[in-house]
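User: I'll paste a sequence; please echo it back and then give the predicted structure.

Assistant: Echoing your sequence first, then the prediction.
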Amino acid sequence: YVFKVVHDEHSKKAVVWLRTYAGEILPGSILINARTGEEERPTRLLSMHGEETVEVAAAGLGSIHAAVGLKHTRTGDTLLLSPREGCGGAMLDPLRVAQPVFFMALEVEASAQQAALGRGLEAICLEDPSVIVRNDRVTGQLLLGGMGELHLQVVAERLRREYKLNLYTGGMQVAYREGVSTGYTHESEHSPNPTAAADIRIAIAIAPTAEA
C-alpha cells in the first residue's frame, strides 16, 4: 500500500513509500497498480535509518520501504504482485479524496517552459491526489484545482522553486455547489378520460443526501 510519494529535487524521480501487507517485493518485481491496471517495476528498494538511506535486497511482510522506478503510482494506490509472482488479489480501500472546489489558472512566461510545467504538475498530482489539472473548455486555460487558496498557492510556489518556472497565476475561482436542505414530495394524476379513474400517476420525492 502506497502511503506517500515524494520527488527528489535533484533527480526529479519519484520515491514511493509503501508498506508490504503480503508477499515479498524484489527489485525488478512486476507490480500491478490496482487503480490503473498498469505494470510497474521497482529498480531499487530503500530503507531509512535515521537520516541515512540504505539499499535493501527485498521488502518483506510488514516492512516499510521506499521504491524507486515506479513512474505512474500515486499516494493511496495498492500495488499487487503479478499472478506469476504470487498475487493473491487482495486490495486495500483506495484513498477517498474530495473533489476540488478552488481553481486557479496557470500560465508560463515562455512556451519553452511548457514541458517543465507538465512534468511538475504530473509529479505533484502523484504526490497529492487532491490536486487536479484540467483545461477550461471555454477559455482553453490550464486550471489547477485544490482544496483551498493556500493549498494552490503552495503548489504554485513549488513549481516556481523546484522547476525554475516563470509562472503566472490567475484569480481564484470557486466552484459553488448547491443542494436541497429539506425534503419534498409531490404526486400528480392524469387521465385522458375525465369520467374514468386516473390512468397515470406520477410521484416525485426529493431529499438531501448525507454529503449535502
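The mean pLDDT is 85. Helices lie at 114-127, 149-163.
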